[in-house]
Write a structure and sequence with these properties.
504 residues, 18 helices
């Protein structure tokens, strides 16, 4: 009944019965509902995605779970009726078939890690309600120069669920959204994939900062913004996200280090480096003279086939949860733990490990179930390759000290000489400092507060491992070794720092 207090409900009902634009007709309908004495049991799907064991697609088509023996006798029970209350979106109406989609994309995506990564990510959404609760919605951004193919990667991934040949984003959306529209877009892609293309379209700097921060934190959380009159418990909106931009989002908002680090922790940047000769392609696919020609062909095929692979994948998930949901959850948990362990050599950040592991597991399931053909290549290996590129995205040079030396030169005037400190700094002053210089046995050492170091160097873990391997970093040894050390007491009695040695 609470929904019938909202005017937008009657706006939609008026599309069915124009008489409901009149206040008198609305009051009459409310009265009739309030005095009705009989109701039938049904499931209500207020958004796409899972409703019990049913999965509703964005075009309001429903994938029902396998028919049980009880239902096969004709004695179907009422609780299996699903009433769909959201407006369908035509971009989710599939075109073609899984076989034709595979045939169209295959020659262009085979053994291409960027494209296989995006395709594997597209299958994460339906799995999210069944993975351990500490696995949040994975957010990835492809950042690179115009023409690198970053947007095409997202469009190919979106073809698993949606398409639109009349849209410049195919089945995706742009960042040209108002804050009020964001929740609706998120909900429309629930338990699926959302492509947000071209973050530079997010408006002026202030508007961009507000929208991007709201979007990133909102997409990580499964909840929705609550309005007065909303039910206390609305649909949980988990999904996978691909964003594209010329520059990483943390640079676009130009905020304080803490703001940028918060985004960096939630949105994993995959750079399409300018040094890659063929952009998103590792090599030019056979039969094409250039990467640009291959990209044009791939975009054309995305505009011809879409929306079938996601449905087939969901039906395999439904079969598994209908057979033994507990066992399926255990299978996912074991697979995620295995791939987290494999990825631990690439990053020590748990959130990043979990997001990448989700992509690997989803891709491998899609491959096992025949949705991603085996001959396209291993999704797990694609994740490993893209992770390596993402986490070394700043391009660690042959002398990794050069990166740190450039930072020292850039902030020379603000660096604090440890020997000039007459007392330890407060925690606030320590965290605000750009770094400290002190004399060591093997030359000068620069000590940079951990939070600042992680913001300044996108591939900080890769950089520090390279420095440590070359003997240029002091790290914390032990069974659970760390890349940081405790802050020397002469500097501050709290916190941790990255310590790098270099000669001047």
């Amino acid at each position: 009944m609470a929904d019938f207090a909202r005017q937008e409900v009657f706006s939609r009902l008026a599309d069915i019965d124009p008489r409901l634009i009149e206040p008198a007709a609305q009051r009459a309908l409310r009265t009739e509902i309030a005095h009705s004495g009989t109701y039938r049991s049904a499931l209500i799907a207020t958004a796409p995605g899972w409703t019990a064991q049913h999965f509703v697609l964005g075009n309001a088509a429903m994938l029902a779970p396998p028919v049980s023996e009880h239902e096969a006798t004709g004695r179907e029970t009422a609780e299996h009726e699903v009433i769909i209350t959201f407006a369908p979106h035509p971009k989710f109406t599939p075109r073609g078939s899984l076989m034709h989609w595979q045939a169209a994309l295959g020659p262009l995506v085979t053994e291409q890690p960027f494209l296989l990564f995006g395709l594997a990510l597209a299958f994460v959404g339906p799995l999210l309600p069944f993975v351990p609760s500490d696995y949040l919605s994975p957010l990835f951004e492809f950042a690179g120069e115009p023409g690198s193919g970053k947007s095409l990667t997202g469009m190919v991934a979106m073809s698993v669920w949606a398409g639109d040949p009349n849209s410049t984003e195919a089945g995706g959306e742009t960042w040209n959204l108002s804050p009020g529209r964001f929740d609706a877009v998120k909900l429309a892609h629930r338990h699926g994939l959302l492509l947000l293309d071209e973050a530079n379209l997010a408006g002026t700097l202030d508007a961009r900062r507000s929208l991007i921060q709201q979007a990133i934190f909102g997409m990580t959380s499964s909840g929705m913004r609550q309005r007065y009159g909303d039910p206390v418990s609305g649909p949980q909106s988990q999904l996978a996200v691909i964003s594209t931009s010329n520059r990483p989002l943390r640079d676009l908002i130009e905020g304080a280090p803490a703001e940028r680090e918060a985004l960096h922790q939630r949105m994993i940047t995959i750079p399409v480096a300018a040094t890659r000769a063929h952009g998103i392609f590792d090599f030019i696919p056979s039969g094409y003279e250039s990467a640009a020609q291959a990209a044009e062909a791939l975009r054309g095929r995305v505009d011809e086939q879409w929306g079938t692979a996601g449905s087939v994948f969901v039906q395999f998930v439904q079969n598994n949860i209908a057979h033994d949901e507990g066992r399926f959850r255990e299978l996912l948990a074991r697979g995620l733990a295995h791939h987290r362990d494999r990825l631990s050599g690439e990053t020590d950040r748990p959130r990043v490990q979990k997001c990448l592991a989700l992509v690997a597991v989803a891709g491998l399931l899609a491959r096992r179930w025949g949705v991603l053909p085996t001959q396209w290549g291993s999704p797990a290996e694609a994740v490993q390759a893209v992770a390596r590129m993402a986490l070394s995205g700043t391009g660690v040079p042959s002398d990794p000290r050069a990166v740190v030396h450039a930072y020292v030169e850039r902030h020379r005037a603000a660096l604090v000489e440890v020997e000039n400190l007459d007392r330890p700094l407060t925690k606030a002053d320590f965290e605000a400092a750009v770094g400290f210089l002190r004399a060591g046995r093997d030359g000068t050492e620069v000590l940079i507060p951990a939070e600042r170091f992680r913001v300044e160097f996108a591939a900080h873990a890769v950089l520090m491992r390279a420095l440590r391997a070359a003997g240029h970093a002091q790290t914390e040894p032990g069974r659970n070794s760390k890349l940081t050390i405790k802050t020397p007491r002469a500097i501050c009695r709290e916190g941790r720092v990255y310590c790098i040695r270099f000669s001047e």
